[in-house]
């Protein structure tokens, strides 16, 4: 049987959903081919980045996924963490925590609390979740005023709170038609690119073919041209979200097979990638983009500190951790109490800092001092005065050390493991 690119069928089969929910029904993407070499990607990346905030239509046409992004992580990638992350890396793309469409719609009068961020956080992606088309449309439209660089739709969260009630998150992978409609509606209510973050399967629906059917359907029914693939399936049998990020095995070969079978769609790989060495190993094998979650939160200095130089080939900010904390203090003291009811408090604002000295001398003592200081400090200035003595000057004032080691061979031989090609014609025949 002659195999051919699945996506070549899609342009003709794309049908936007015309309804009152659509705001921009004519929006569509054109794919611009580009070299897979990381060096030339750097140049085109900067060109893209320079234009990204000004030419909305061109953004869609020139869309490239970020080479490196920090994953959306509920309760973790909040404004405070993102402020810290941006002080460490200028080029990493930052994803928000997932925000339910209903929250945006019902908190219409209070949107800054959920959607506002400082301009330094660009490039930044808003992740939304939901299963009600009207709310997704309204939420996207309301969020448009905040100028996010991309809107991402959550189809990967296995939490029973999310996957159970209202049936959103990873359960949506079982209803690709709905996701296609949702993405069509989201795209119609924003001028920035849209993307889907998903797993490689759910429970027994875990074959490569089923994953391809999902990608094929969603991209046929909507202008979605970027998928972030958390390369393990989700189990909806009651295991915790944390176990769902550990127990199902990673299958990077599915990710690389998607790139082979859908050459006009961009894919970002995610799951278990812990250092810039491993990020570069994925890019060397042709990955369009790499998303890192836990490592960027648990060890932000060492994970993000090399992103600008080792991944983007750009100069590093050169800031030491003392300088980063000085700037963070200004931010922190400015936002303390902003939401009312004394929130955020010093504990909230300092939370992402607690991993800044991961495995460095003084780290344990600093955390103990911080715990004590949280009980009475009311400003970030006083918090730092009371706790930072625990960290030696040599740590506070040293620039980022050399690139930490990682599994350079994480993706070696991956192309020998790929499942057999997806044939979109079979799916089309079934759909006919
Ligand atoms: C605390 C925590 C919260 C998370 N919240 C979200 C979320 O809101 N939306 C989402 O798509 N994924 C969420 N994830 C999953 C991550 O985005 C990512 O896919 C996962 O951690 C695998 O990447 P990693 O191995 O690099 O951590 C969360 C992960 C963690 C650890």
TrEMBL record:
<dbReference type="InterPro" id="IPR013785">
    <property type="entry name" value="Aldolase_TIM"/>
</dbReference>
<feature type="domain" description="DUS-like FMN-binding">
    <location>
        <begin position="70"/>
        <end position="379"/>
    </location>
</feature>
<keyword id="KW-0819">tRNA processing</keyword>
<dbReference type="InterPro" id="IPR035587">
    <property type="entry name" value="DUS-like_FMN-bd"/>
</dbReference>
<dbReference type="GO" id="GO:0000049">
    <property type="term" value="F:tRNA binding"/>
</dbReference>
<keyword id="KW-0521">NADP</keyword>
<keyword id="KW-0694">RNA-binding</keyword>
<protein>
    <submittedName>
        <fullName>Uncharacterized protein LOC111304500 isoform X1</fullName>
    </submittedName>
</protein>
<dbReference type="GO" id="GO:0017150">
    <property type="term" value="F:tRNA dihydrouridine synthase activity"/>
</dbReference>
<dbReference type="Pfam" id="PF01207">
    <property type="entry name" value="Dus"/>
</dbReference>
<keyword id="KW-0820">tRNA-binding</keyword>
<keyword id="KW-0288">FMN</keyword>
<dbReference type="InterPro" id="IPR004653">
    <property type="entry name" value="DusA"/>
</dbReference>
<keyword id="KW-0285">Flavoprotein</keyword>
<keyword id="KW-0560">Oxidoreductase</keyword>
